[in-house]
Amino acid sequence: MSLTRTLTLLATSVVLLIALVAAVWSYFESNHELEELFDAELAQSSRIVQGLVRHLAESESPQQLPSILEETLKLPEAALQEGDFNEIIPDGSGHKYEKKIAFEVWDNHGVAVLDTLLIPGEQPLEAGYSWVESTGYSWRTFTLQDPASGFWIRTAQREDIRTELSEELARGNVLPLLLALPLLAAALIFAIQVAFRPLRRLERPIRDMAPEKIHPLDASHAPKEVTGLVHAVNGLLKRLNSALERERRFSADAAHELRTPLTVLRLNLEKACEAHPHEFEGLIQSVDRMTYLVEQMLVLSRVDSATDFSPSVHNLSEIVEQSMAEVAPLALRKHIEPVLQDTTRQAMACCHGALINTLMRSLLANAIQYSPPETEVTTELTASGDGYLIRLCDQGPGIAAEERERALSRFVRLDQRAGGGAGLGLAIARRIAELHGGTLSLHDRPDGGPGLCVEIWLPAQCPTPGIA
Prior knowledge:
By secondary structure, the chain is of the alpha+beta class. Helix content is 53%, strand content 16%. GO terms for molecular function: ATP binding; phosphorelay sensor kinase activity. InterPro entries: HATPase_C_sf, HATPase_dom, His_kinase_dom, HisK_dim/P_dom, HisK_dim/P_sf, Sig_transdc_His_kin-like_C, TCS_sensor_his_kinase.
C-alpha cells in the first residue's frame, strides 16, 4: 500500500471519527440545552400568568375570574397534541415551534380557578419543577404561588411533545455537520494529494535519468521532511556515477593498452608462420578473435559514454551502402552476396551518422559470420510510420525464440564454438538504437526459411538524447 493511500485512509478515518463523535455530542448537548430552555420557558410562562392573575384578582370580581382566565389561557385540547401548530390550529396563527403549554390556577382556598383537566389532581403543595403522570402521559410542570393574592399557578408540558421539539431542533443542528462530512473528506484527500506533489516531482527526474547522464536532484523545492533523503540520494548518485565512470575508463584503457601488443604479436606470428604455417595458423586466428573483442569493447565504451549526443540529418541509404561496402571483404572471403533493397530512395533521418554506421557494420559482420557460404545477406530499408525500418536477414542457423532476449545482453555467446563472437555485437546495436529513441528486435525470416532477421526502427525526427 502506498504512503499516500495509507495517510489518506488514516487521516480520513480520524477526521470522520472525530466529526461523528462531535455530531453525537452535539446532538445530546443540544437536547440537554433545549430541555433547560423548555424548563426556563415554563417558569417564564408561570410568572407571566402570575402577573395576569394578580391583575385580574385586583380588578375583577371573583365570580368572573374563572371565565376570563379560561378564555385567555386555555388552549384547545388538540393544541396540546404532537404535530405542527399550523396543522392543529387551521387559522395559521400558530408557529411550529410554539411550546403548547397548559396552565392551571387555584385560589388560596384550593379551589380550581382554571383547570385544563389534562392534569387532574389536588392543589400542589410545593413550588418548583416536578414530573407528573396523568392521562397516560408524563408531564413536566412548574408551580409557584403568588404571595400577593395567594393564588397557585402551574404550567405543564407533555414530555413526548418536548422530546419531539428537542429532537427536531437537535437534528437541525447536527444535519449540516453530517452533510459536510463527505466534503470534509474530499477536501482532506485533495490536500494530501497536493502535499505529495513535491515528492512526485522528485520521482520524475529519477525515473527519466539515463545511466550515461547521472546528475544530482534539485532539492530546492523538496519538502523539508525529505531534504535529508534527497541529499542521501544525491550522494548515492554521485558514487554510482563515479563507479560507472571508472568502469568505462577501465574498459577503454584496457582495450587501448591491449590493442598495440596484440598488433605486435600478430606481426610476429605472421613472420613465424612463414616458416611453420601449420603450427602458427591457429594462434593467428586466436589473436584475431582477441583483437576483434578489444575493438568491440572500445566501440561499446564509446557508445556507453556518448553523453554529448548531437544528432543531425543524414541519408540512411548512404550510411547503409557505406557500411555494406566496408564489410564487403568479409563477405567475399565466404562468397556471400550482400543485397540492399531500398524503397525509400532518400531516407533522411536525424541521427548520429558514425553510430549508425557502427550499428550496421556490427550487424552485417554478425550476419556474415553466421551465414553459410554461397548465401545472401539481405538489407531492406523502408519507411515505417514516423521513422524508418531497417530489416537485415541472413540464412544462418538463427536463434531460438526463447533465447532472443538473452542474445541481446552483453557478453552472451549462444554459439560456444571456437569461432564464435564476443557476445557484444547485438548489445552494441541495441544500445545505439536506444540512444536514437529507436528499437531493435529479432524475428524469423518472413519467407519462413532458415536464418534470422534483425529489425531496427529509427525515428525520422531528432529524439531526446540519452534515452535508455
